[in-house]
Every structure is written in structure tokens, then in C-alpha cells.
Amino acid sequence: MFSSFAVRHTVGRKQAKGEVAMLDVLIKGGSVVDGTGRPAFSADLGISGGVIVEVGKVTTPAARTIDADGAMVTPGFIDIHTHYDGQVSWDAEMLPSANHGVTTAIMGNCGVGFAPARSSDRETLIALMEGVEDIPGTALHEGITWEWETMGEYINAIDRTPRTMDIGVQVPHNPLRLYVMGERAVRREAATPDDIAAMQALLVEGLEAGALGFTTADTVGHRDAHGNPTYARQVAASELYALGEAMGRAGKGVIQIFNDFYRDNAGDFATIAELARRSGRPLSFTYEQDDAWPEGFHEYVTGEMDALNATGVPIRAQVAPRAIGGIHSLQGTINPFMTRPSYMAIMHLPHVERVAIMRDPAFKARLMTEDDRPISDFVMSVSPRVEEWGADPIRMAQRTFCLDPEPDYEQPLDRSLYGQSQATGRSVPDLLYDQLLTQDGTGQVFVPIMNWGGGNYDFVHDTLNNPWAILGLSDGGAHVGYICDGSFPTYLLSHWTRDRTRGPRIAIERAVQLQTTAPAEHLGLHDRGRIAPGYRADINVIDHAALAIGRPTLLNDLPAGGTRFVQSARGYLATMVAGQVVTDRDRLTGAKPGKVVRGAQRRAA
């Protein structure tokens, strides 16, 4: 559909008196998907001063012309759910988001972050982020500059570094609680009225300084590096309501919440709804399909969203375009054999040496007979003690897939390890072992955790088409050795609008809307997320036919030698931030026009 692309520079000349001013950039002849959801249309874009000034047949001369004939032109993507809170201290490039069309990244999600923070709390907050978001503590210790204590000081500190994209900050619940309550927060004590008043004041102070919102989480899966629950776990609903009411009085900010409400849909979701009502502020919640959902739960949640929005309560679901799951590999954080004695004896060795040892048939035979300890359902399912621990090996094997160089995240059952085992007669552990040793020991196995009920994407398709949905949950910058979902924007546009064969696709216009106008309107960023005069020139020029993601690869580029998964993209012919080209044919240009977005924004006059 979209194929050719060329860039040319127009030589500037002296402007004659009375002539129309020269544009900075002219994007010529693209198929514009403007972010609103309306059908694509052919148009030129004129850009001046970092703002779109003309859309249509543009004849004004320009200093630079981008010939987008055959390409798709969209607003830059807004990633509403990232965890770059520590990475912003040392990284100006903002990978992996920068190469997936993201021009604004919002961090501070799930109630974790690094401000406000007393100097005595730094170790505690690093342990929290390391445990919750799988970011190496050594990298955080070495990389974070700690030039701040308050939220305002944090915003000022990170805004001193130019970046490839704009970033937005939110006030996270756990640091807020720790700052006010100290060790009592770590012990998860109830907040006193004085504690709540202090948290309210600091929250409003952070919003006045430019934070975009407040975030919290109540989930059993979030623990610090020592295995302790987060400080905001199971706080009283009255504490949440008080913080929301403070935001309502201030008239600022959005609320983001991650909650295991599917375990008690009549209770926990009611708390979320009441928080949205009492605050009067836009609220978004994490919405992933869990195997434990009761019958009719999806219909209940979507019905509640419809009802709340109909009465003027702005509530949205943050949804993902594929299964949320983990990558098992010999290079990353986990693999299925990591707790067996033979592997534990070599896990400290360099990767090349470990792979050489594991290729020895005698080593493999010995490891396959060994006991391990249960650290997850997946490890349990390939353990010799699987029956004793009560794991369901067939269920896990049916949702375990090999990731090839062209990764497929929606594979049919017969391509799962269970399907391969049935077809070949080999055991699942045997297949797993050999898969990890493929491609010089960089083989990967993907295990869906959420959004894979029934072994398909029926739920995902439904949520992507929900009118109250926002694309979220990429967790850019987090889970660096286990999850690599910063590629969500590219996956949504390639898989769901072009490649999907196991069910219906979605319209390109909807895929763009989910990550442009929808998050912009929710966040109050009315200066971006749409292609129209007066909006920021945050723009993607995309070869849709060539758009693709690569297999996750491990980089050793974190501070202190830490490693992280990143995922490449193909097909981004140009990405612009405030009118400057930051990527050209999938490569960073070195331009860094990005700044901190301080609070809600208005469209340029």
C-alpha cells in the first residue's frame, strides 16, 4: 500500500518583501492518517517552528522537503505506560521506544519511581524498582544522578538533558508514601490523617511543578528485590480517595492504577470506579485478560466503563496489542533450567562458555534428571517434580512458543512446544533445551501470561476496538531481561492491520488513533496526537508494507555493564519531534529536541 520514499533538500533563497514565509519542512504527498480515526486522505504537510501550519495542497516553499509519496503519515506515537524513571538519568536516546515511532513517553507508572526521595530512601527505592520492574540494581546505583529530592527538582534535573523525544512524569504512590511515612510505609502501616494530609500536599505540589498525574498499584506480583510487597499494596480505599479528591480540588492530573481487580470484580473494580468518581479526574486502569477471570467478567468491566463515561466519569482501559509474557533465554533474567544444580554451577560463566558446556550430551542428560525448586508455573511445568508440585505441564506447554528471527506472537497450538512434542514424540523439556541453544545459544522461548485465554487473541481484538481503550502497557525501560514490549506501536500497526491470519484485523485508522489522539486527549496533551494546523509536528512517515519488528536482542549497554533486551523496527522512514527528524530510515539521526512535558498542554494558536 505504501512503498516509495525520498528526501530532498530545497535550497533556500532570500525571501522577497510580501512573499509567503518559507516553511521549515514540507512533507509531500503522503497518505495521512490523522489520529482521529477518520479515513486516511492524501495531503501535504507544511511545518514551521515545530508546528504543523498547513495541511492539504501546500505550495509554500520549504527549506527541506520529504517526498512521502506511497508512505503513510501519522502523528507521533504517545506511549502512556513506560518506566524510564531511572534511565532518563543516563540515556538521551530513549531506546527501545525511539525506534518505534514514539515521540512522547510517559513514565512514573504503577506507583514506582524515584521522586520525591530523601537521600536516606535511595537504596530502598532502587530495591523497589529492581524488584517490581526487573531493572538491574547495579545499573540504577551507578546511573542515577540523584540531583533532586522533590518532584519539582526531579523534573528540573531530567529536563536539563535534551532527548530524542518528549517525556512526561507522574507522581508515584510508593515514593510519596515512603517520603511521608518512612519505615512505617515499608512496614505497610495504615496512614494517619496527618500522613494523608502531607501526601495530598506533596501530590498537588508535584502536579503544580508539571507532573501529569498520580499512579498507584495493588497487585501480588509487585515486590521489591528482597521479596517484600510494595508500600502501597492494599492501602485503605480512603487513602486513595483522599489523594484523588486533592487532585480534583487542584483541577490537575490523571490517575493510573494497576490492580488485581479480576480476583474480586465486585470489590476492587468498585474501588477504581469510586476513585474516578470522587476525583473527577481522568483515570486509566491496566486491563489484561487473566485465566482466573470469572464468567462474564469482561462484559462486566466494559459495561461499567460505558456506564461511567455516560455519566461524565472519564475512565479508560490501558490495553496491549498482544499477550503479556516472558522471554526465556540463556542470556536474559530467567530460563526453565536455572534452578537445576548443574546449571546453577555454570551460570556465573560467560555466555559462550556456558553454551559450550550445555552442548555436551552428558551434561544435558545429567541436567534433565535433576530436581529444581519451583519459582514459577513455567519452571514447575518442566520439572521432574511437576506432579508433586501440582503444576499443569500440558497447559503451560500449550502456551509456550519459540521466537524466530521474525517473531510471531500469535502462533497456533500445533506450533507450541506441546504441539511439537505431540508431532515428534520428544519431551517438552528436551525441545526447550535445544531451542535455547539455537542461534549460538541465543534461542528464545516466549510464554504468554496474560491476554492468551483460549489460546487466541479474541480478547485483544475486542479491547482494541473498545471506544474507551488506550494503547498502553509497553513498559518501555522495564523488565529488561525478561520482557520486551516497547515494540507495541510497531506490532499494532504491522500485525493487526496487515499480517494477522488467525482472526479479524483492525483498521489502520483505529490502530493509529489508539496511540495518538486517544492518549493525548486522556492526558490533556492537546498540542499533539493529531495532524492538523496548530498541532506539534510530532510525525511518523512509515512504509507500511515494510513495517516489521525484529527478534529481541540483548545489549550490554546499561551502567555497570548491565544487560537489557531491545527490539528493532523496520519501516520508519522518518520520525519527527517538534519538526526535527530524530530517526531517518530506522536510524537515529542524533537530533535531540525532546523535553519534559510540564502539565496539560494547549494547541498552538
From TrEMBL:
The record's listing under InterPro entries reads: Amidohydro_3 (IPR013108), Metal-dep_hydrolase_composite (IPR011059), Metal_Hydrolase (IPR032466), Metallo-dep_Hydrolases_sf (IPR050378)
Q: Pfam families recorded for this chain?
A: Amidohydro_3
User: Locate the Amidohydrolase domain: which residues?
Assistant: 64-582
Q: Which domain of life is it from?
A: Bacteria
Q: How is this protein named in the record?
A: Amidohydrolase 3 domain-containing protein
What is the source species?
A: Blastomonas fulva
